[in-house]
Amino acid sequence: MTVAESKENYLALILQWIENNNTTDHVDFTQPHIKRSLRYVYPIFMFLHAMVGIVGLVGNVAMITVMGKRTLYHDQTFFLLGNLAFSDLIKCLFVLPMSLANMLIQNWIFGSFMCFFLPMIQLFPIHASMLTFLTIAIDRYRQIVNPFKARVPAGLCTIAVWVAAVCVVLPHAVYIKYIDLGAFLGERFNGIGICYVNMEKHIEEYLRAMFVTLYAMPLAIIAFLYVKVSAELKARESSPIYVHYNVRNESPRDSQFQDEISSKVTWATDSEHGININSTNSKDFTERATHDSDDDLDIAKEKRTHNYLIAMVTFFAICWCPLNILILVNYFVHEDEDNTGHIDITYITFSWFGFLSTCVNPILFASWRMPSTTKDRLKGYFRFSNKRRRSSQASRTTCAESFVAPPTPSPNESRRLPKKPVSYSNGLSPYHATVL
Q1: What angle do CA 128, 131, 137 make, to 5 degrees?
Q2: How many Å apart are CA 36 and CA 342, to the nearest integer?
Q3: 400 or 113: which leads in pLDDT
Q4: pLDDT tens digit sequence for 358-408
Q5: Parallel, antiparallel, or unpaired for β 176-180 and 193-197?
Q6: Residue-wise over 165-177: b if at least 16 C-beta within 10 A, else e?
Q7: Does residue 258 lie in a domain region?
Q8: Are the CB atoms for 143 and 232 separated by under 8 Å?
Q9: In terms of domains, do 102 and 16 share one?
Q10: pLDDT confidence of residue 56
Q11: Which of 87, 171, 223, 383 could form a disulfide with 128 if both were Cys (CB 3.0 to 4.6 A apart)?
Q12: 264 lies in which domain range?
């Protein structure tokens, strides 16, 4: 089927629908019309998308502001995280509103340019975020596992990420077709068109390739690199550090000082570490560590950074997984009047779940960079709230118990109770009194 034949088929269907529906005479097709399946639930989805957009916008702006004020962008990892926040800003400002309008409105009123541009702007920030996570994983691997290799500048990596993200979505415009109804049906349909996917070009193969190369494969590479980095950090944390002191020109005073040091320092042997130690004829003291590759590496700090990066990429993968799978199988499902409502609701729900990733990253970043004093204050507040709740419950229990009368003992139990001893002022018992 050629493009001209597809246009004729669409126009014939539209004319037939207009003739069969006499109530369309007073309908303004230039105004947006909500889909019938979403007519009663679209306010809920608008509210949910608005909340995600506002939280994501404020959070990512705050994230970029903190990086700028604290000059964290000098660190290559934080520079790439700033690029990630920038891609999330694009999603909140442009992608989310346009995607929501496209999913809610039945008729296409956005013109021919948006028909070709909207699919690309919906996809390239998501691809940019995934490529940024992949770049961070590669950079962390080179920094920790292979520290002697030079690191690629973060600015160059950012440019490469955005160029690659734009290039991979450009072929999507080949599969989009647009029919201007105003040119065929008169002034009543000026500005109205039909934007559809040309199924003759086999777009499912393109989407399958995008899913593998820009979602599944990057996640597999990131997982492999982070496992290697975790193993390296664990090995460095468990390895001990040996300190060696050498003494020359030994004098009585120096020998006494050396004895004091020998009692506090564990000396490494040649058989254990292959290090030749000369314990005499030395005056200066030297320190050597088992790790000669990167002595300035803060293992605790790197482990903390590593854990937060794993959490970010995990939440990103979980949020966008349902929508990616739905897009992948959407062209294999036959849509008709019976299931079109379920497909619309499922699609808009999965889309909202994907945009939740724009809110997760600022929250994780705030928890990561929050001062310990602020965390202790928050913990103390919640701990005080729990204590106050428990104390109120304990007071209510005590008050309830105070109103309960103690049980009266039975006659048998009263006989078994010990009698209170009676004391006499003269120290004599009644028997002695009667005798006297």
Answers
A1: 145
A2: 12
A3: 113
A4: 999 999 999 888 877 777 777 777 665 555 556 666 666 555 555 555 555
A5: antiparallel
A6: beebbeebeebbb
A7: yes
A8: no
A9: yes
A10: 95
A11: 87
A12: 240-290
